Structure formats: structure tokens, C-alpha cells
Amino acid sequence: MKYAIVGTGVAGIAAIEAIRSVDAAGEIVMIGDDPHGFYSRPGLAYYLTGELHDKALYPRTAEDYRQMNFRYMKGRVKNVLREARALELEDQASIPYDRLLIATGAQALPLEMPGANLEGVFKLDHMDDAKRILKHARRGKTVVVVGGGITALELTEGLLARGMNVHYLLRGDRYWGSVLDERESKIVEARLQVEGVTLHHHAELTEVIGRKNRVGGARLLDGKIIKCDMLAYAIGIRPRLELARQAGLEVERGILVDECMRTNDPHIFAAGDVAQVYDPSSGRSVLDSLWGPARQQGYAAGLNMAGRITAYVKAPPFNVTRLAGLTTTIIGAVGSGHDEDVIGIARGDSETWRSLPEAMVAQSGFDVNHVRLLVGEKRVFGAVVMGDQKLSYPLQKIVSEGIDISSIREKLLAPDARIGDVVVEFWAGLRN
Ligand SMILES: Cc1cc2nc3c(=O)[nH]c(=O)nc-3n(C[C@H](O)[C@H](O)[C@H](O)COP(=O)(O)OP(=O)(O)OC[C@H]3O[C@@H](n4cnc5c(N)ncnc54)[C@H](O)[C@@H]3O)c2cc1C
């Protein structure tokens, strides 16, 4: 059996691990156009702040790769020739396959406005972007950050840590309104202000102003100009669908796959940020841009490619991240609306989070230690845990396993509920 995998991200790597767990002899070739190969993309945030060296972002060693026993080819796949079952690379090389995985990930939406191509305008997709940002960042200089979700905040904090004066533009009246509620947004914003970030609400960027071909300022819709030396943006991402479209596969916002990660061509699979996967909790096919689901989808795809039929059951997505220095876990459906700063989906985000189920909200805690639950008749649909993380693991389990919480529902929804104590006690009871 000949396997071809396009994309050297976590979905592609997990697929190879899965194939090798059941097929020691098949030929595997992996093709990728990122010169840095496989590394932790979420880790780029910590590389920007200086907390991690770039060498710490590579999760596999040369020995790991040797044991996985595959051929690696650097390059971009240009065409999938479905009839011939072969891939065509940009340099004209042709690679035959019996089973193909498209794990091409997603890329940042471009900034489309005058001045977007000036030197000093940055996105954060790849290791090379992070390196370029660090080369350009200068202590005491000014940067304007535009966008929403986790990546815009990572840019803000990374550049702040490098000693830059940061202006953060928000189109609406609060940060990440599609996932956080008003109180949570305000907690994050207050911390950013304490760290020295200048926040601008209802601020819409209309032009990046150039000075000798370099960034010199940011013009806003109301005519205001913020002088700056750099502009960084994270306004959303788009799955890389070029190959799937060229091959005539079924796509919507991502490549549509069945529960075995198979596309409408039985020889071709898709996984990770590029795949649009059926979500039993919402009954829709959704996009995730999360490391964990990309890995699980890649693994399921690999097993199926090797003939071990295995359904990928999409669990309620969760992410443990840091927002303005505050560890935050987001689990299941928690959404509260629309985020004006992001078009579509952002990095580290899940479309599942944005749905708001019919549920009551239970919340407690202010400032740093805050928890919000979406409580249905019998189960918790979603949760946001900020600060103290002792509830993070129990809530991940309670949400993802759909555990019946009717016995504590009233306590959770009581006006002065001590949600933390109620959940911890309930969890201890379950474990016993
Ligand atoms: C800055 C940042 C912060 C993030 N934060 C979080 C977080 O907090 N939590 C979280 O869970 N997730 C986070 N993510 C998202 C997470 O990293 C992704 O969900 C995950 O990496 C997706 O893996 P993938 O294998 O699907 O795609 P990718 O990792 O994007 O890999 C796809 C690869 O395919 C290559 N490729 C594309 N087209 C072709 C082609 N035609 N030919 C050859 N190669 C091709 C690309 O160059 C790329 O190397 C973050 C990502 C970034 C960039």
C-alpha cells in the first residue's frame, strides 16, 4: 500500500503514527512546504514572548522520525490527479498513491486595505512569521495590533514582552465577544491595561500609512491616526482548500469528511484545520482550529487509510490557553454572539464554542478566578474557567461525557452558588 500525506502539521504526523501502528510495511511519503517541518504552532506565542527557545517547539526527534519510517519531501503539491491516483508537485515530480491524506491546515486571512503590503506589517501563521516579527520588534517602538481571538492577544503580549508600546484596536465594544461574555471580556481587558496596553474600542483600521515604504502609522475610520513602526494582525483564518478544489472534492468552509475522515473520493481523506467535521452536539459540520482535534482527526484518518475502520467521534472541543496572563479553559458550547474582530474562525478557536445552547448560565467569581457554566436540564453544555484551574479537568469530563448533573442543578443555579465547591464535591462523589 502506498500512502501520501500532504502537510507536515500535527494531523499529518498523527496519521503516520496511526498507519504505522497497523501497517509496518506500507510506503509512506509526506510532502510539506513549510521549511521548518513539524513544530508546535501554539508554542509560537511563547517563542514570541521569549519564554521558549525555538528549539523547544519541535516535539519529535530525528530518532522518532527514523522509527516512523517514512519518506519526507520538501515542496508544494500543486495537483491531485484523481484518475491516475498521483500527486503533482510544483517541481513537476509525480507521486503515486493508493490512499491520500490532505492535511494542509489553514492560513491567516490577508489584510486587504491600502498599505497592507508595507514593510512592517505582520501576521502569525508560521515559524518564519514569528522570526520576522522578532527581527523587526524594537524596545520602545510602537506597534498597532488588529484582530480578535487568541492570536491577536498573543501578538499583543509577545510584543509587549519585547518592550514595545502596544495599541490594540477592537472594532466592537469588547474583546472576543463570540466566546467570552461581557464580564470575561472586561477581565481580560482590565489586565491588558494594567500591563500597559492601550486599548481602542470601536476602532476600525482603514489604512496602513507608509513612510519610505515602511509602516509609519495606522489610519482609523474616524480619521484618527496612530503613529507606529509596526502593524500586526490576526483577523481570522481560512482552510487551505486549493488542492481539494482543484481535485473536485466536496468542500464548504472546509473539506467535508464523513466520520472516518473520508472525503467524497474513497481514496482521499482529510484531517485537521482543513477538514469540516460532523459535530453530533450541534448536528452541523464545523471547523476547529485546535491542536488536540487535529491530532485526533489525523490519527483516525491514518487508521482508516490503513484499513482499520474507526469512527472519529468529535468530543466537545476545549482549549487551555492564556489570556492576558490568565490561564483560561474553554469547553464545549459557550458562545455569546458575534466577534466583530474576526471574520469566520480564528486560530485556537472552534465553531462549536460559538453556539449557545438552550441553557441557564451559572457563574461565580470576579477578577482572576472566574467560572461560567451553561447548564441544561441534565447536563452541562459548556464552561469557561479563568484563573484557578482546579475545575478545568472535572468540567472537561462532565461536559464531554455528558454526565447527568440533575442532582446538583439547583445548587449550581442558586443566586450565590459556590460553583467551585459544588463541582468539586460532585466530582469527588463520582470518583468514589
Ligand atoms: C499562533 C498560533 C496559535 C495557536 N494557538 C492555539 C491554541 O492555543 N490552542 C490550540 O489548540 N491550537 C492553537 N493553534 C492552532 C493549532 O496549531 C492548529 O489547529 C494545528 O496546528 C492544525 O494542525 P494541522 O496539521 O491541521 O495543520 P498545520 O499545522 O497548519 O499544517 C499544515 C501544513 O501543510 C502545509 N501545506 C499546505 N498546503 C500544502 C501544499 N499544497 N503542499 C505542501 N504542503 C502544504 C503547510 O505549510 C503546513 O505546514 C494555534 C496556531 C497558531 C498558528
Describe the 3D structure.
With 432 residues, the protein is of the alpha/beta class. It has three domains: 2-107 and 238-305, FAD/NAD(P)-binding domain (3-Layer(bba) Sandwich); 110-235, FAD/NAD(P)-binding domain (3-Layer(bba) Sandwich); 318-431, FAD/NAD-linked reductase, C-terminal dimerisation domain (Enolase-like, domain 1, 2-Layer Sandwich), CATH 3.30.390.30. 26% of the residues lie in helices and 28% in strands. It has a five-stranded parallel beta sheet, covered by helices on one side. A five-stranded parallel beta sheet has the order 9-16-10-11-12, with helices on one face. A five-stranded antiparallel beta sheet has the order 22-23-26-25-24. The longest helix is centred in the last third of the chain and has 15 residues, at 291-305. The relative contact order is 0.14. Bound molecules: flavin-adenine dinucleotide. Flavin-adenine dinucleotide binds at residues 6-12, 31-34, 41-42, 44-45, 76-77, 103-105, 124-125, 150-151, 154, 240, 243, 272-273, 289-292, 294, 319, 321, 347-348.
Sheet having the most strands:
5 strands, parallel
The total domain count is 3
Distance between the termini: 48 Å
Q: State the shape.
A: globular
Task: Give the CATH H-level superfamily of the largest domain.
Answer: FAD/NAD(P)-binding domain
The number of helical runs is: 11
Radius of gyration: 23 Å
